[in-house]
Each structure stands twice: as structure tokens, then as C-alpha cells.
């Protein structure tokens, strides 16, 4: 385990946390392992120059030069130095520690000279106050340190975060789509991902200044290029990228093939042509979403299965994964036994809902950036193997227009070949159809016992 260490002296604005860097992730985590293809790169020789200002307390723009100071795996440290401090003012300087993870960009540590004395105090008292928005990247991490930027950035992505020296600032953040933005570093314009945040601070002397609405324009391969914070007290802070050694990268696909938005509902019906010929109709509702992890509750609407329960899913750079499920059901249908072999009766797989059929086997259910030809396989070293005992392979086979009772959808098609040893009903071929912004709309599972399970979205 490696660490980036920091020390603080008197009169220094500082927040310290241990930054642990583990081993590199699996191949599926390549987006986080790539040093350059990030929303804030850790590329060798990376430099940025920003100007920032505040309409009330620092109307004259101040300039900061940032550079990569250290890097260890996915962890990295940036250092900045002010280059045009006003006369009789101490130039600001400091460091920021970040880490790229499968859940997004995290800020773990920071330290710097104190903010200019004319700025409001963003703590309960002036003594040992570790909070500041006096700086370009301080504006970006204010109230949004963990995570600073959730990933993957998909349509509908929304997350809560905290920040400040003592996690005393909260924010509600959402991806607001793409925009073409012109800044000094890119006068012809550059494509950016737009993130809007409602930041709230309570209990500090400068609460109105510490609260407000912030917009950050992120450029892939570069970092933030423009930041605007409209403070609740009426002031406005701005930062803009003046120059950089980095080159913009293409924006990654932001189509959400399996979105989990709090309050959203979906109704499905499903049946098996041999074991349950009547349709079972069930409704799913997203009841909670925290940091791209969602709880989805299910209830019966009609048919031979009376079911209630919930599922936990996570959306990460590696794809959408089932974390756990807990359901209770009374059934008039009788299905063949399922595995895995050696599991107790209470721990055996059951097909009760469409989401059971969708998530069965191994993850991810659907990858991020599901382009045709993307393939992934089961692994005996995963939780999924312990839960399902399934071997096989999944592949994105292309796009197809399908019709269901809910309408006509253009879908991404995922084909999975599954083998649950000793259980023919748990083996076979599954075709799943995912529509951007809607999620699963159809599924056909051809079991090796000769039966076929069909799922259709109704609304």
C-alpha cells in the first residue's frame, strides 16, 4: 500500500486524509486506470492555468498555475501557485489530492495558504477554519469532495456529495447534458459535460456565501474549463481555463441503458410457455438512489405470483451490477429446481420477477458504452459465482427495434449463454433488449429444458 503524505504548519489551510492506493483494477476497470482519458487527467507533465474572481470580494481576476506534482496508481496530487497576486498580498499556493475510482473522481486531501481576509468565514468560528472557495479548483470541490464527479456520467445521473473540511457542506448534483463552451484555452469552442449543483452550508458565519448554485463544464481529457457559483448572498464566483498542456478527448457515450431515477416506475409482465402460461404482472419502483446505487422495490399487480421485495443495483464504470435482492412470494406456478449446486434451499436461485431473469448469471447486466461486439465472461472469483454458480459469456450483438405493450423501442441487444451445472432450467440462452433512457423493455430466455420465459414491458 502506498500513500501520498501531507503535513500542515501554522497558518495553513489544511485538510488531511490517508490516501490509500490499492492494486490496479481488472480489465473492466480500464477507464479509471487510464491516466489521460479522464475528466481530470493525471497525465505526466499536465499543467493548467486558471483565472478566478468573485464579484464582491475579489473582482480583479487572480491567476493560478496548476501542475501534476505526484502520481501513484490512480492517486495523484496537483500543486498550484498564484502568479499575479495583488500588491501587499501573499500569493496563494497549495495542493489538492485526488483519486480516480470506479465510482468517479474523489478529492481526499487539500492544503493551502488561508483565503484572503476579506472573504466571509465559512466555519462556525474564524479559528482554525479549513474551508475556502478562494481558488479555481476550490470552487469545483466545494461541497463536492466525495465524489467530486460521479461516474459514469449518463443521462439522468444524479448524486449527493459532501465537502468542506469536516464534511459540513452538502450538495445535490446532476448531469445536465452536453454543451459547446468557449474559454480562453479553447477560443473556438470545446465540447463539455455540464454538471449543476445545489450547494448548502448551514451553521457557518458565512452561510449565504457558502450556499448557492454551481455549474461546472468538464472537458474529457482536460478537466473543468469553466466554473460559475451563484452564491445565496447574491455574489458570483467565476473561474475559467486560460491555457493547458492537455488535449481534449471525445466525450464518452452518455446513453443510459438501465437508468435508475428515484421515483421512476416500470410495469412488466412475464410468463413461461411450459411452467407458467398465465402472465404475471409486476411493478418496479426506484425508491432510493445514493451515489449511483439504487434500491428498486417490486410488488404484484396480477397473475399467479404474489411477490414483494427489493433489489439493490449499482452503476459504475464497469457497468450495472446486482448487489443483492430480497423477495418473498407465494406462487401457484411450479418451476423446476435451480442451483447452484451445494447451496442450501434458502440460498438457491429463484425466478420470480423479470429482474431475476435479467440479472441471473454474472455481471455486469449491461456494460457502460455498450458497443457492438463488447464481450464479457463469468468468473469463479466473483460474488456472482457464489450466488448463481453460472458459467458463460455475454455479448452486445447490435441494435434492433422491438415492440411491446409499452410501445416501439430502438434497443441495444445483449445475448448471454448461461450454464448452471446440473440444472437445465438455469441454463440456456437469454436475449435482453435495453432502450436508452428506459431500461429493459423485453427479454427472452430459452431454457435448456425446452421451455421459454418471455418478459415484456407494459409501461
Cα distance spanning the termini: 49 Å
Q: Could you tell me the strand content as a percent range?
A: over 45%
Cα shape: elongated
Helix content: under 10%
Q: Give the quaternary arrangement of the chains.
A: single chain
Taking pLDDT < 50 over at least 5 consecutive residues as the criterion, the unreliable ranges are 1-11, 16-30
Q: Any idea what the radius of gyration is? A: 25 Å
Mean pLDDT: 90
CATH topology category name of the largest domain = YmcC-like fold
- Main sheet properties: 13 strands, antiparallel
CATH architectural designation of the largest domain: Beta Barrel
CATH class of the largest domain: Mainly Beta
Given the helix and strand composition, which structural class is it?
mainly beta
Topology (SSEs and partners):
Elements: E1 2-3, E2 13-15, E3 20-21, H1 30-33, E4 47-54, E5 58-72, E6 75-82, E7 93-101, E8 104-112, H2 136-141, E9 149-150, E10 158-163, E11 169-183, E12 186-201, H3 207-210, E13 212-219, E14 223-231, E15 236-244, E16 265-272, E17 276-290, E18 293-302, E19 305-316, E20 319-331, H4 354-359, E21 375-377, H5 383-388, E22 390-404, E23 407-420, E24 428-435, E25 439-447, E26 452-457
Amino acid at each position: 500500500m502506498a500513500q501520498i503524505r501531507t503535513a500542515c504548519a501554522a497558518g495553513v489551510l489544511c485538510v488531511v486524509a490517508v490516501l490509500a492506493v490499492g492494486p490496479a483494477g481488472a480489465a473492466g476497470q480500464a477507464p479509471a486506470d487510464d491516466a489521460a482519458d479522464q475528466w481530470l487527467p493525471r497525465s505526466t507533465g499536465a499543467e493548467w492555468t486558471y483565472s478566478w474572481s468573485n464579484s464582491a470580494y475579489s473582482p480583479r481576476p487572480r491567476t493560478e498555475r496548476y501542475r501534476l506534482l505526484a502520481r501513484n496508481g490512480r492517486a495523484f496530487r496537483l500543486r498550484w501557485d498564484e502568479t499575479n497576486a495583488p500588491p501587499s498580498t501573499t500569493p496563494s499556493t497549495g495542493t489538492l489530492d485526488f483519486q480516480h475510482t470506479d465510482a468517479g473522481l474523489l478529492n481526499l486531501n487539500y492544503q493551502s495558504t488561508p483565503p484572503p481576509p476579506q472573504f466571509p468565514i465559512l466555519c462556525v468560528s474564524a479559528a482554525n477554519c479549513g474551508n475556502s472557495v478562494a481558488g479555481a479548483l476550490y470552487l469545483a470541490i466545494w461541497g463536492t469532495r466525495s465524489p467530486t464527479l460521479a461516474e459514469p456520467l449518463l443521462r439522468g445521473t444524479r448524486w449527493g456529495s459532501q465537502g468542506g473540511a469536516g464534511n459540513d457542506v452538502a450538495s445535490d448534483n446532476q448531469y445536465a447534458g452536453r454543451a459547446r463552451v468557449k474559454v480562453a484555452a479553447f477560443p473556438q469552442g470545446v465540447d463539455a459535460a455540464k454538471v449543476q449543483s445545489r450547494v448548502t452550508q448551514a451553521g457557518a458565519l458565512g452561510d449565504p456565501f457558502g450556499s448557492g448554485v454551481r455549474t461546472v463544464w468538464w472537458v474529457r481529457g482536460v478537466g473543468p474549463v469553466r466554473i460559475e457559483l451563484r452564491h445565496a448572498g447574491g455574489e458570483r464566483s467565476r473561474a475559467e481555463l486560460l491555457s493547458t498542456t492537455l488535449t481534449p478527448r471525445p466525450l464518452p457515450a452518455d446513453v443510459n441503458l438501465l437508468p435508475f431515477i428515484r421515483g421512476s416506475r416500470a410495469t412488466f409482465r412475464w410468463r413461461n410457455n411450459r411452467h407458467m402460461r398465465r402472465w404475471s404482472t409486476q411493478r418496479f419502483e426506484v425508491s432510493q438512489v445514493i451515489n449511483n446505487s439504487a434500491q428498486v422495490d417490486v410488488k404484484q399487480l396480477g397473475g399467479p405470483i404474489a411477490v414483494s421485495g427489493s433489489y439493490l443495483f449499482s452503476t459504475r464504470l464497469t457497468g450495472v451490477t446486482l448487489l443483492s435482492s430480497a423477495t418473498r412470494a407465494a406462487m401457484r406456478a411450479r418451476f423446476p429446481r435451480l442451483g447452484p449446486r451445494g447451496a442450501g434451499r434458502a440460498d438457491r436461485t429463484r425466478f420470480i420477477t423479470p429482474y431475476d431473469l435479467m440479472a441471473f448469471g454474472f455481471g455486469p447486466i449491461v456494460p457502460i458504452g455498450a458497443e457492438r461486439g463488447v464481450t464479457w465472461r463469468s468468473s469463479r472469483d466473483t460474488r456472482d459465482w457464489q450466488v448463481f454458480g453460472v458459467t458463460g459469456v455475454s455479448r452486445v450483438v447490435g441494435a434492433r427495434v422491438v415492440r411491446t405493450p409499452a410501445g416501439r423501442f430502438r434497443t441495444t441487444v445483449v445475448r448471454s449463454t448461461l450454464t448452471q451445472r446440473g440444472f437445465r432450467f438455469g441454463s440456456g440462452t437469454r436475449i435482453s433488449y435495453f432502450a436508452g433512457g428506459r431500461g429493459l423493455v423485453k427479454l427472452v430466455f430459452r431454457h435448456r429444458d425446452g421451455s421459454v420465459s418471455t418478459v415484456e414491458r407494459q409501461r
